[in-house]
Amino acid sequence: MTESELGAWMAYLKATHLLERRVEEQLKADSGLTHAHYEILAKLSASPDRQLRMTDLARKLVVSKSGLTYQIGQLEKRGLVERTACPSDERGVLAVLTGEGMRCLEKTAPGHVAVVRAFLIDQLTPDELETMTRIMSKAAAAMAEDAGNAAEEKGRGGRLPRTVPPPDTRPGGSPFGPSPDGRGHSPRSRGSSIRTDA
User: Fold this and answer.
1) What pTM value is reported for the model?
2) Where does the chain show beta strands of DSSP type E?
């Protein structure tokens, strides 16, 4: 990576880690939810009849089916979500937001929105927000396309495509990949340093 590339990446990591920490603290204090739990409740609340097939919910949340099953199990124990058979698909399972789950979401949402607004939305101008939306949407689309290609290739029994170049593991090679001139380098060797204090 060049200095500017590494700077962008490190700034993104620091901002997202700090914001995620703030969000988790608020959710835990207000309702004992995790961010993953909150997203599940929010997705269900916005769906027709406040329910979704588990496979559809996993896709919307961009999580694995097994991971979602675990999270739903935790929410079921609190009476916030329940699972029922899907009437249109005998093999399908619906995740349904309960009345208690909706009340929990309504209690928690104002504080959640306030944190996101205070530490992200209000820190940016309208133009910056539009730029951020465009950039993140572009990155998400690229990753979704890559994941789709990988799944298709795996389904055909082939090797998974690798679109990310591997790090240079040769002596003196760089874990940050090749520099624009084709030679591996680390940011430190180009006059910059890596900060580890978030």
Assistant:
1) 0.73
2) 51-53, 81-86, 89-97
